[in-house]
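[User] I wish I could look at a protein chain and see how it folds. I have put the entry right below:
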Amino acid sequence: MFKVSCLKFSGKHHKAVVKIPFFERKSFVYWQKNNYFCIMETTTGTIPVTLTPGAITAIRKLMAKDDFDSTQVLRVGVKGGGCSGMTYILGFDKREESDQEFNIEGITCVMNKAHEMYLYGMHIDWQDGLNNRGFTFKNPNASTTCGCGTSFAV
């Protein structure tokens, strides 16, 4: 969450606190056109997605393999495509400058900061049944999803 404090330069001081559910590590300062000076600072770090115990177990099994590249981290994200417009990304990758980093049960995860608005609050699970095997995504931001559950629209 962010805390935003604003001061108006018209002789009176105003302070506003706004909570925004997006994660950002760095505080920054900006000017608004209507003579406001605002400072945005992080009040708490949030984890944008959750992994169920089944997903954590499956990811740890992948990480325990002999050929696993320990320089990579778990990437959660989206890309254009699929029958609903956007497709989920879940895999091991190198860190990038535009990533935010978070940790879930000892698993280092990264997400492009721009993807959080599509994925905030999503639950990732592992299914190992007769009808479904693999990772599943429950995204509260999706307005529609495809039948297989790997594509969505907002």
About this structure: The radius of gyration is 19 Å. Residues 53-63 form the longest helix (11 residues). The longest strand covers residues 73-80.
